[in-house]
Amino acid sequence: MDDETVMDKKEIYDSEKIKVLEGLKAVRKRPSMYIGSTDENGLHHLVYEVVDNSIDEAMEGYCDKIEVALKPDDSVEVSDNGRGIPVSEHPQHDAPGVEIVMTKLHAGGKFDRKSYKVSGGLHGVGVSVVNALSKWLEVKVKREGNVYRQRYKRGDPITEVEKIGENGPSSGTLTRFKPDPDIFETVEFNYETLKKRMRELAFLNKGLKIVLKDERTDEEIEEEFHFEGGIVEFVNYLNREKEKLYPEPIYFKRREDGVHVELAMQHKTEAYSKDILAFANNINTKEGGTHLSGFRAALTRTLNNYCEKNKLGEDVKIRGDDYREGLTAVINVKLPEPQFEGQTKTKLGNSEMRGIVQSIVSEELMRFLEENPKVAEVIVEKAVTAAKARQAAKKAKELTRRKGLLESVDLPGKLADCSDPDPSKAELYIVEGDSAGGSAKQGRDRDFQAILPLRGKIINAEKARINKMLENKEIRSIISAIGAGIGEDFDPDEARYHKIIIMTDADVDGAHIRTLLFTFFYRYMRPLLERGYLYMAQPPLYKITKGRAVHHAYTEEEKREILDELGKRGVGIQRYKGLGEMNPKELWETTMDPENRILAKVTVEDGERADQLFDLLMGKEVGPRKEFIQENAKAATNIDV
After folding, report:
1. Strands of 259-267's sheet, edge to edge?
2. How far is 347 from 606, CA to CA, in rounded Å?
3. Is 507 an active-site residue?
4. What pLDDT does 408 receive?
5. Under 8 Å between Cβ of 358 and 277
6. What sign does the CA torsion over 321, 327, 328, 334 have?
7. What's the CATH number for 404-539+582-635?
8. Active-site entry in 99, 138, 214, 505
9. What is the pLDDT of residues 516-561, one digit of tens each?
10. Taking Cα atoms as reference points, which of 275, 222, 270 lies closest to residue 613?
11. Is 502 helix (H, G, I), strand (E, B) or coil?
12. What does the pLDDT look like over 551-601, one tens digit per residue?
């Protein structure tokens, strides 16, 4: 482990250091209050809570290896080579330390500032919540030359802490638990979800080795994550398929007032989107916070000062957004008492962190720029180009804000608006082609359904700056109809519709148009996805008739079921390749009627993975895209040949 993370190892970690804040009441009754949800996200959160205890040991310098194993019976085993949870009797609570940790909410060494100077845990709820929400849990502790074990059922101990053997000088904790199927919607863990988080933790904790095993299949899967380069390797990983503006990431770290600040950053050459990840005590603060605002302020001020000092970029006014264009950065802070805000507790609120991060980043970044003038020049050149594009985009943006724009802009096929002014009830269908747009206009419910037909394919948002995007009529039509602006100025509260439904043909061209629209919304109106406003219509694939009876099949499996029911004789099958093949009544009944339609909500579960996929599939690099298509071609379905 990094020497700077190793604390004073003379502090004795025993049961006396364990502090108890409250009991386990109501955890099973209201699990979502403690782990966010009882769906797949909440399920995986159980693993993160147990792993976080091991990470705490690693941050203190006592642990350098963690193993996570998915077992065939849907249980999970997490083991480490840390100090081992204390097993001696707690002086105030008349129970062994390990039992208190496992059965008392907010109990553990992290509440004693001497045992853990810095600790993680997404909500700080502790392993006791994992125990409460498990059908069973078993903990084994290797400590002081012995091995101890205790078992629990739905949070309650069913055995005493018993010595089961001797183990020599090694130490550590092994926790195995099986989530309670009475609590969770599913108890099947997703390997890829856990893999992403374990790799992330290994990046954030330089030198720590994390092994992930999947023992549920005939051929056991095992992967090891171990990065001596830490977050520098994280940035290299994020930029692995992109052209870099300069060869190596900028990196520095510093400790100040008990706070550890670490930053790695690198600009991409042709990319316009920014990927800035901020972490506090290993928690991905997706909503940002004071450490992120401190970094952004320092980046802008330092580069502005460098430009002024070296007389660079004098012909244009550069803003912070311009310096961040195409930037990939990982900011990693560790602090004694983090305060998290926001609905999902992923926003750092410690006010002092803004000043600390801003001061450290300003000093260290200026030192780097002065020592590496060539890198500084290319960063400024890219920012100047971005600033000029932004100014051109500003002029185009004014068009989208002008009063009465919907009447003045040449909307393809004209926007047919709905009569209900309430955005929460209003729906906007973005429809491929004038023919389908005409059918949709005739078949819709005019009270709450608006129709915006598009002609042809829109511009690829992944390959164009915003000024080029705004030169495209179809894009301007979408922006105008939604009425909430675009990009940095986008305000989801101003959206005129809370359901925006993309309706395209069920063929390759339709899929391409959907992808182009998804790319645009993700890059320039992402809050729509985060709020769950964006949907994809699911038109039927087949019309199946027998006599006067008409059936619609939305999948190949549904088609087979209908044919099995009707028999093959006298059956007519029509494969819909275009929405225009349906008359207004059919389009309403199959695709637009809220009572019958099928809508797929478009959400962002993994921003990092989404960024990579959009860049891979829609970006300028052909080689990685070709490789991806070759690797995944067998999984493709409903492809028109």
Report:
1. 250-256, 259-267, 327-334, 275-280, 283-284
2. 17
3. yes
4. 40
5. no
6. negative
7. 3.40.50.670
8. 505
9. 898 899 888 989 998 999 999 999 989 999 988 899 998 888 999 9
10. 275
11. strand
12. 999 888 899 999 998 887 889 999 887 888 889 999 999 999 999 899 999
For domain 3-226, give the CATH number: 3.30.565.10
For residues 474-498, give the mean pLDDT.
Answer: 87
Residue 505 is a catalytic residue:
yes
pTM of the model: 0.71
Please tell me the distance from the alpha carbon of residue 585 to that of residue 440, in angstroms, as a whole number.
9
- The active-site residue out of 214, 432, 474, 615 is 432
* ∠ CA 581-583-587, rounded to 5°: 90
**Region 269-278 average pLDDT:** 86
Of 16, 19, 25, 85, the C-alpha closest to 50 is: 85
Among candidate residues 2, 89, 341, 509, the one labeled active-site is: 509
Determine whether 491 is an active site residue: no
Given pLDDT bands bounded at 50, 70 and 90, which one contains residue 290?
very high
Give the torsion sign (CA, 229, 200, 529, 518): positive
> Does the annotation count 420 as an active-site position?
no
Residue type, 562: I
Predicted pLDDT of residue 71: 97
Catalytic residue among 4, 40, 112, 507: 507
Query: What is the rounded distance in angstroms from the CA atom of residue 361 to the CA atom of residue 368?
Result: 10
Q: What CATH class has 231-393?
A: alpha beta
Q: Measure the CA–CA gap between 414 and 407, rounded to whole angstroms.
A: 9
